[in-house]
């Protein structure tokens, strides 16, 4: 009898890899009606953001580096924002494991999403250029799976599924001339960003000795002169560790991963030895609490898609009709040798002037029409990847890809057919906006929205926050030149703001000329998208956030009442809200008017609502 049990599974969309890209792709696809299987080879979700690696998620807002507050709401929305807000409230202690749990619960909450943890995709069957099945193994239970799907989404980072299927991919750095990229090297090479192991240390109330193992490397102050490490004691940063503990970019980061892990352990413990025993670093009472055994991998393969995103697209913010997400992080390159290159700074961050589009075509294989990808393996040059690779952007791309995958399944189309189909792209982009993703400059003009036919009034409003703003079809402020966010976005606050001079409650009312029977109401609240918000083990970074409590701009308590034939009745009553997007099904009785009354915020002296939508009965 063979030990291994064989299982045949099927779904609409198979997502391989459960990092931030994979989680958001899977959740988006299932919420848009597809049946989904998510295979993650580790016991936890989150990839480099998980408790196994512990990087904090950054994104298009460049960690708050985009200038003045009002027009800089570049933080990703949608599924990632939902996760961030929940994590902020449920995880005030900043536990990495609690973040794992939140991602796990997000997947487990979706009845049509099958989560296979500890399950590694190991192969793919292709017939007539299309992937028909993937194979996966769960060693811990001696199970093998054959998974049939209509769309396959590779979010493994390393691209294992697509490579098994024969998809084309690139590695290393392109020559400057190939895509006319000024930041690329003269000649192509196979160098890449290295991998890292983070450490986290804790301060004790007495001296904590450290003896390095004999195989740890030795570092002098001169070796680390360009790598800040409790230098001058200011801002020790020992509670988070050092991302610049990096090595392996001159090797094949997949095939040599075990070698790289061993070397990174020797480097990590050597750096710690230097901090503890190599002169005064103010770390006498500090001791190592945790360090990873799983290298965080920055770069390996990048697929070749229907389009390859380049430095010029990133720097010039090329508009794409098939945009499904946006980026904005620096072009953040590192010396491939990592700590072996002490004469070079550990990173070079080229500022990206504006937010930029990420087209669907960069996420669809050029050869295998039902293969999509999201995350660090999308179709981009090395230089463009150096910006798209951050996890906020990976998550936004994941939501875009998952939404497009579900649409393709619903319409009986192949992913490769979507980008050239204007009606399909329109529908996908509208769905993304409906789900609070942001697409640069794109206005959500929902023909099915009953709010558009209503007369809108408010108990009070500010000059730059009239009630009509809840219908502008944009829900954030990202306009402006001069290094802010996007010249394509319409200026304005894009939210109703009640008069702070008049105490709450504040009210907004929609009245229809003829009774309507909406199926539901969708609200978008202000959650302070101009601020940084991410789980981080770094104390100084966390101090820049409002962490462990709700964002003050967000409406906390509200009621929604409906009027029929002159009579008002309660439709919805919410207390303790901290989320940005709230959806409330209604009881499908005819309504002449609806009023939304804000009785409390989470701190601000005024009510703010960015969007109000009413779904038609058929929605
Ligand atoms: C040290 C370091 C520091 C960084 N700093 C930051 C930072 O501060 N902020 C930031 O946002 N980004 C940062 N990055 C970049 C970022 O972490 C990566 O680009 C990002 O994690 C890519 O996301 P992803 O979802 O594509 O892949 P990953 O996070 O790598 O997730 C992919 C997942 O797929 C799984 N997988 C792989 N193969 C298979 C398979 N065959 N079957 C099933 N599952 C599989 C992996 O185990 C993994 O969990 C850093 C990266 C590193 C390494």
Structure summary:
The protein has 619 residues and is of the alpha+beta class.
Report on the structure:
With 619 residues, this protein is an alpha+beta fold. Helices cover 19% and strands 24% of the residues. The chain has 3 domains: 5-172 and 303-432, FAD/NAD(P)-binding domain (3-Layer(bba) Sandwich); 195-297, no CATH class; 450-618, Jelly Rolls. It is built from 11 helices and 28 strands. A 5-stranded parallel β-sheet has the order 4-3-2-8-19. Strand 5 (120-127) and strand 6 (130-138) form a beta hairpin. The longest helix is centred in the middle third of the chain and has 21 residues, at 257-277. The protein is globular, with a radius of gyration of 25 Å. The termini are far apart. Flavin-adenine dinucleotide is lined by residues 16-22, 39-42, 47-48, 55-58, 120-121, 155-158, 160, 195-196, 243, 296-298, 375-376, 389-392, 394. Residues 16-22, 39-42, 47-48, 55-58, 120-121, 155-158, 160, 195-196, 243, 296-298, 375-376, 389-392, 394 line the site of flavin-adenine dinucleotide.
């Amino acid at each position: 009898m063979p030990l291994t049990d064989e299982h045949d599974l099927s779904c609409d969309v198979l997502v391989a890899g459960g990092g931030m890209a994979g989680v958001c792709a899977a959740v988006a696809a299932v919420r848009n009606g597809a049946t989904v299987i998510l295979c993650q080879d580790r016991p936890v979700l989150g990839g480099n953001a998980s408790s196994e690696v512990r990087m904090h998620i950054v994104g298009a807002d460049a960690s708050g580096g985009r200038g003045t507050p009002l027009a800089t709401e570049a933080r990703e929305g949608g599924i990632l924002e939902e996760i961030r807000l929940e994590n902020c409230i449920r995880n005030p202690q900043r536990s990495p494991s609690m973040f794992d749990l939140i991602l796990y619960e997000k997947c487990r909450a979706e009845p049509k999403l099958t989560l296979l943890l500890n399950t590694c995709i190991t192969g793919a069957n292709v017939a007539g250029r299309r992937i028909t099945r993937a194979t996966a193994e769960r060693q811990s239970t001696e199970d093998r799976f054959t998974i049939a799907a209509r769309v396959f989404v590779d979010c493994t980072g390393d691209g294992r599924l697509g490579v098994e299927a024969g998809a084309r991919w690139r590695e290393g750095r392109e020559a400057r001339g190939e895509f006319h990229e000024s930041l690329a090297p003269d000649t192509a090479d196979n160098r890449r960003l290295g991998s890292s192991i983070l450490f986290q240390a804790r301060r004790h109330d007495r001296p904590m000795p450290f003896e390095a193992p004999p195989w740890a490397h030795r570092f002098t102050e001169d070796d680390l002169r360009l790598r800040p490490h409790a230098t001058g004691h200011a801002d020790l940063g020992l509670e988070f560790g050092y991302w610049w503990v990096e090595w392996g970019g001159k090797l094949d980061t997949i095939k040599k991963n075990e070698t790289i892990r061993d070397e990174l352990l020797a480097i990590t413990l050597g750096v710690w030895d230097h901090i503890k025993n190599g002169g005064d670093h103010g770390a006498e009472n500090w001791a190592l609490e945790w360090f990873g055994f799983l290298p965080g991998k920055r770069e390996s393969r990048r697929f070749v898609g229907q389009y390859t995103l380049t430095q010029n697209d990133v720097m010039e913010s090329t508009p794409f009709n098939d945009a499904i997400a946006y980026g904005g992080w620096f072009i953040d390159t590192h010396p491939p040798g990592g700590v072996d290159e002490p004469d070079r700074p550990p990173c070079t961050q080229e500022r990206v002037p504006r937010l930029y589009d990420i087209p669907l075509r960069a996420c669809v294989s050029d050869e295998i029409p039902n293969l999509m990808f999201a995350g660090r393996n999308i179709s981009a040059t090395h230089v463009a990847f150096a910006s798209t690779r951050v996890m906020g952007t990976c998550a936004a791309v994941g939501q875009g890809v998952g939404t497009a995958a579900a649409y393709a399944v619903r319409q009986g189309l192949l992913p490769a057919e979507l980008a050239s189909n204007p009606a399909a792209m329109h529908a996908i982009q509208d769905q993304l906006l409906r789900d609070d993703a942001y697409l640069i400059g794109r206005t959500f003009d929902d023909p099915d929205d009953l709010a558009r036919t209503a007369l809108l009034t408010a108990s009070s409003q500010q000059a730059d926050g009239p009630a009509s703003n809840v219908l502008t079809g944009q829900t954030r402020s990202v306009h402006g030149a001069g290094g802010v966010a996007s010249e394509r976005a319409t200026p304005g606050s894009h939210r109703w703001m009640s008069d702070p001079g008049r105490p709450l409650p504040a009210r907004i009312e929609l009245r229809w000329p003829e009774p309507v029977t909406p199926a539901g109401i969708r609200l978008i609240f202000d959650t302070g998208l101009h601020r940084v918000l991410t789980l981080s083990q770094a104390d100084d970074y966390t101090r820049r956030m409002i962490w462990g409590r709700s964002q003050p701009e967000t409406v906390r308590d509200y009621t929604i009442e409906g009027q029929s034939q002159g009579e008002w009745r309660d439709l919805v009553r919410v207390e303790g809200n901290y989320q940005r997007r709230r959806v409330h099904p209604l009881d499908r009785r005819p309504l002449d008017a609806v009023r939304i009354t804000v009785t409390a915020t989470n701190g601000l002296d005024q009510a703010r609502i960015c969007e109000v939508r009413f779904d038609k009965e058929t929605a």
